[in-house]
């Protein structure tokens, strides 16, 4: 039985992160498992299972009022008709302004594997194509398989088991050297958000909400 006074309960800031797919979901889960984020946050991860589902999942979680802030984590998909540009447009529409998307979308160009491999060494991926990226995946992770990396659970489990607190620090150093302009290849704004998630000062959540809800 929990006898904690009511004013001490549920004091953590609730953050929801809409993940594009299994790769993003499992990767963030591994980082949370390692405890890289400050203990003042309570994370809920949602697997959208495809790029096309992100905006709907985002709107649902945002309108639920169950979270202090909601983010999306996705690739900069090559096809604007059902990819990253459409997600940006739909999230901006939710808030009724043109700046919301840049405040709540965590992106990686060309794909999340760029960040994942940065745990293990220097890499500059130019494509989302898993077959073309396979040589770099094998080189940096030691993945051995009778087929190319395809994002299956076995492959994900193998790679993510190799992610540690030590190479987390190395990853942050490497991605800090990338562009933060989403149209550049490679690029990502992931380090900016990781720095926020590591901070025990939660004021940044209120700051972002004021910016995106008052425009």
How many structural domains in the coordinates? 1
Largest sheet composition: 5 strands, mixed
Order of strands, main sheet, comes to 2-1-3-4-5
Query: What is the global morphology?
Result: globular
Instruction: Give the quaternary arrangement of the chains.
Output: single chain
Overall residue-averaged pLDDT value: 93
- Percent in helix: 40-55%
Structural class: alpha/beta
Count up the helices. Answer: 10
C-alpha Rg, in Å?
Answer: 18 Å
In percent, how much strand structure appears in the residues?
5-15%
Please write the string of helix (H) and strand (E) elements: EHEHEHHEHHHHEHH
Which ranges are low-confidence, i.e. pLDDT below 50, for 5 or more consecutive residues? none
Q: Give the distance, in angstroms, between the N- and C-terminal Cα atoms.
A: 45 Å
How many β-strand runs? 5
